[in-house]
């Protein structure tokens, strides 16, 4: 297939608010020997895109400067070393960047098939949150069936994914969210108890349950000492962002006395091999659950690619529940 030289895309014209996202024309990316090129049908919008836009989360060396960490569409080119995929296959993929565009290149083993029964807009919502939740909650924190998970921001893209995944693997899930409506949706997704953090203290709720084995946190700041109180002995705190602050004064005695583990990670700077291993585990353990309908993406809203600024404004308003996607093709 002959690809065009140029494509529609949305770039970050300068660090700033949503208005700095600007429709542009860019060259179509070429695939390296182990890459695929995808004609993007839909691109997922994630909070890290907004951080990158604001100048607080630089693209790693070698990655596209265009935002967009996940997409779904049709493969239009495969590198010489790629054996798994063929031109015409429909995939969803984790991207090093560049999803807000008609075409994007990514390592072939960061792509996964579109789960049976899911549409391309649904599939575009999967990679960033499923890679993040699987690698942090299951691979890093080792959540097991019967254990208790507390996930903050339960109505977020990450939160809705974590609630469903942990429930599907037999954990008890507690979560926090900022409104009664968000709490209701979290409980419908499988959370045993959603705590409206504006009205209730999650520490008290978790302590009454004997404490959390694992906490997935994106807030940080004042939540860090409270998370430590909410953990049980041998509990694990996984930090994936700091919406409030990365800095806090902390008494580490409880970490020692109750043998706690504090860990965390960001997905984007990890090696291609590490991401390929996450993809492999997801395909084996989680993709069958998506195909059977046991879990699925929670969709908030869809915007045209050129309306990416409006999509970011909605995400930053925190009015959304679940995932926001950009329609790129057609
Ligand atoms: N480490 C990684 O690799 C990685 C990868 C992807 C995403 N992330 C991070 O994970 C977080 C979620 O990402 P996303 O794309 O799912 O974003 P999102 O849908 O915009 O989620 C952010 C959520 O945070 C909640 N929130 C904001 N301030 C809060 C506070 N003070 N206390 C409690 N909850 C608060 C909001 O819910 P309420 O309205 O209920 O407050 C909102 O739903 C982001 O911080 C993102 O940067 C990390």
From TrEMBL:
Pfam families: ADH_N, ADH_zinc_N. Keywords: NADP, Oxidoreductase. It comes from the Bacteria. Residues 16-326 form the Enoyl reductase (ER) domain. InterPro entries: ADH-like_C (IPR013149), ADH-like_N (IPR013154), ER (IPR020843), GroES-like_sf (IPR011032), NAD(P)-bd_dom_sf (IPR036291), Quinone_OxRdtase_PIG3 (IPR014189). SMART domains: PKS_ER. The keyword Protein biosynthesis does not apply. The keyword Transport does not apply. This is NAD(P)H-quinone oxidoreductase. It comes from Meridianimarinicoccus marinus.
